[in-house]
Structure formats: C-alpha cells, structure tokens
Specification:
Layout: E1 6-8, H1 15-25, E2 34-36, H2 44-56, E3 62-64, H3 72-84, E4 92-94, H4 102-108
Helix pairs in contact: 1-2, 2-3
C-alpha cells in the first residue's frame, strides 16, 4: 500500500464499519493523492474514524466524500480534522450532501 496513489471506493457499501478497516489499510499510504469514498452511507460516526486517515495521507490532493450521510456537525468535524492534519493544500474536495446549511457550505469553500 505504500506506493498507492489513487483509491476509488465509491458506491461500494463501505459504511461506518468499513471505515475502521480502511484506516488500518491506509496507515502507511504516504503517496496517496486521490481518495474517493462517495456514496457509501458513511455517517458522522464513520467520519470520526476517517479523521485518522487524514493524518496518514499527507500528500492527498483530491477527496471525494459526496453523497454520504453527514450532518452539519459531521461536516464541521471533517473540516477541523483536515485543518488539524494540514490538508489545506487539497485541490478538490467534494462533500455534497442532500441536506446542508448555507453556513456549512461557505465553511467548506
């Protein structure tokens, strides 16, 4: 996994429990630049687990998390975790959710 640069697990049914496995698998994926987890039914609980991934993948440029089930609180947690991990250099982040407030939308931009 050390040389992995792109991982697309979109629409695979990963869910919150799968996030635990993913965190362990990506522990040393230091070259990962693109991660797509769109459409997996991941909730705030799964996002809490994924915060550990952000600390492992320092070269991440693209993160697609659209069409999951984050609440406003989950979106805030994700942004804080990305900032804490130093992922301000992300070029593309997709966190489109069906219900999102304008305040969070502005925060994510």
């Amino acid at each position: 996994m050390r040389n992995l640069t792109t991982l697309d697990l979109s629409e695979t049914g990963l869910g919150d429990n799968g996030c635990l496995v993913l965190v362990a698998a990506l522990d040393h994926a230091e070259h990962l630049t693109s991660l797509s987890l769109a459409g997996n039914g991941i909730t705030d609980r799964g996002m809490k687990v994924l915060e550990y991934v952000f600390n492992s993948v320092k070269k991440l440029k693209t993160f697609d998390f659209g069409n999951n089930s984050l609440t406003e609180s989950g979106c805030h947690s994700m942004v804080k975790a990305m900032e804490k991990a130093g992922l301000s250099r992300l070029l593309h982040v997709n966190v489109v959710v069906y219900v999102i407030t304008l305040r969070v939308g502005i925060l994510l931009l």
